[in-house]
Amino acid sequence: MTVLSVPFAGALRRPVRNRYVAGLLTWRGVSGLALVGLVALAGLLAPVLSGADPNAQGPEALAGPSGAHPLGTDDLGRDLLSRVLHGIGTDLTIILTAVPAGAVAGAALALLAGTSRAADLVVQRLFDLVLSFPGLILGLAVTAVLGPGRWPVVIVIALAEVPYFGRQLRAGVLVQREREYALAARVGGAGRARVLLRHVLPNAVDPLVVQGAVALSVGVFIEGALSFLGLGVRPPEPTLGSLISGAVAYLDTAPLLAAAPLGVTAALVLGFTLIAESLNRGVRG
Amino acid sequence: MTGQVGAEVLRVRGLSVAFGGRAVVRGVDFALGAGESLGIVGESGSGKSTTALALLRMLPGGGEITGGSVELAGQDLAALPEPALRAVRGRRIAMIFQDPMSSLNPVLTVGRQLDEALRAHGGRRPRAERAARAVELLDLVGIPGAAERLGDFPHQFSGGQRQRIMIALALAHDAEVLVADEPTTALDPTVQRQILRLLARINRERGTALVVISHDLGVIAETCSRLLVMRDGEVLEQGPVQLLLTDPQHPYTQALLAAVPRLEAPSRAAANSTPGREPLLVVRGLAKHYGPRRRRTTALDSVDLELHPGETLGLVGESGSGKSTLARALVGVHAPSAGEVLLRGEPLGRAGARPDVQLVFQDPYSSLNPRLTVGQIVAEPLIAHRLGDRAQRRARVAQLLEQVGLEASAAERSPREFSGGQRQRIGIARALAPEPSVLVCDEPVSALDVSVQAQVIELLARLQRELGLAVLFIAHDLAVVRQVSHRIAVLHQGRIVESGPADRVVTAPEHPYTASLLAAVPTLPTTTGSLL
């Protein structure tokens, strides 16, 4: 009876339905969206912004910025601007495939864990197993089996994210299914699956949205790391990670070669992190 | 009850508080003399707790004092800088809160927490002296074997003892004013009475001025000499408790008093509906144990009950008596360890297997899924039992909402948009959806304000009359239970210790436990104007 927030809850928090939107409409959310949006737009418009073929080699290797090559060329004379822009496209495709796949797989496993104690035990140990491998070892293991390429990168990122999504949702499920409305649904005659999917899941899903934004930034990292080690997308197709990797040898002579993809990567990670934080604040209200 | 009233210690003038520009306390005035006791009563949203917190400027985020003053011995606390105010908090004005479970730090021993309270405010006394003082404080609040218990952790104490420890902490610096915000709301009636007596004794013997905030007039009548009635952030009237409770001037105080269920009032159940002959629901030897065999705890121990159509059986018991376990066993959520539940002679299956027994919950906030609309919530049992198609369900939901006194258009809205009482109506509509013959109500009104309580009770009575429902009404408030029930059963430590006609159980209890429950009910003066 002395819950102070209750009398004002209706007055102050009216647009409850749009907590995500409300979170995104803060300075954090807007600057995050702007950063990610700008980078994504540049990636989408790659063919328009730069006429050069990203994989066409030219005679001028390691040239500085010029009219024909606004950011200069790399060691094989390829246009750097074009490679960075196309690299954005590759990166975004990979993480936007891998993160939702990881989220769905993690959520499915968490719901499975919610059905019985035995299933919970199995799923939990499965998560522990994946988490016990440092990300890079996991990447090495997967690529050792599948070989380097685009899909192994997607699989590594998805796999690395599964336990995080799964654990988040499992914790939410454990809390929400003890709430009285879940009990009310059972008394009303709803079966186990219906209680879980219709009542518990929608109330436990908030943290996953935030986790999703975090995972996108982690995805950029993992792609970069794998490409850096030469385990990522096969050359000559450009990715941000492989561009940085290739630039390391020329750090003192052509710093722009590393700086351009690094800047874009940093912008993406920062953008996703800002979005995650703004969503988090929005959801917590 | 009344302490020695000395010089004025606290004077509040025109105190106003706003949250995000919205005024929630407007121009509150009162004065408190040394050793005096003041009760502030009001329903939820009246601003009584906000007033208490504003005294020490401890308002939660977004709240600010927008006007007025709080003078402690002539010094305005509302204008004091924060560091100077910290020296007042806990030392000159101390507070105790509603929930003794969460107000103590679970990982520190009680002795350590008392020691920290004693060391605060620069009380540089030797360790041994502080320990002696801690024992003295625990002794004062009535913790048996105080010296041995300093090394114990909060979880090793009962709820009532924890509230006593909170009071001991508050008394560490001999504060001039003790503010108690709903000090007994989370406690059982018998424990409540002990705590109220303790507060009254401290007020009387130590001359500590006392401010008690409560929604319960009975609680204030037991501890305070003066009463202040609040509604919508304003003080409606104030004066001596005896006078205000017997001859209230303001219509709101009169209505509030009239809405409080009186233990002396006879049961109204017989006038409402006549129970059928044949028992509808029969519970035989129901038992529920938890934990492994060797260290098992018994929540229910061989419970026998009969419930007839059109009958209300009141089930009374304190926390831990097994009330909620019984409710959940009846609707099939808990599988009983032994015994059976028969409906019309047939065993009742698992939860939701049959729509005949439905449950109404205590907490109207957590029992409605916030992600669904009211219409979806009420339709859930219909979908689960495959009753009707989409159009039929919609019509049934509209009918149910009107039946519980809401508009059919409520179906499109979110449960968040409704007040506590309206939410409880939604919960009742949901329970009625699959046309049950038995309604199990687990503390259906204890989270509601008294005026709303009366409306929900009226609704349940009307539904019973119209639908011939059998109702198991579980509650801890004996006055409410007597009012609504044909028969009362008393549950104590998992056993039914007494059962019988409602009026008989209240007026002539046979079991000593029932008698102690009855004795613990705070009483209000009844005769209007007799003191004048």
UniProtKB/TrEMBL annotation, chain A:
It is a multi-pass membrane protein. One of its GO terms (biological process) is transmembrane transport. Keywords: Cell membrane, Membrane, Transmembrane, Transmembrane helix, Transport. It comes from the Bacteria. It is found in: Cell membrane. It holds the Pfam family BPD_transp_1. PROSITE patterns: ABC_TM1. The chain crosses the membrane at residues 20-45, 92-114, 126-145, 208-233, 253-276. The keyword Disulfide bond does not apply. GO terms for cellular component: plasma membrane. Coiled coil: none annotated. Residues 88-276 form the ABC transmembrane type-1 domain. Belongs to the binding-protein-dependent transport system permease family. This is Peptide ABC transporter permease.
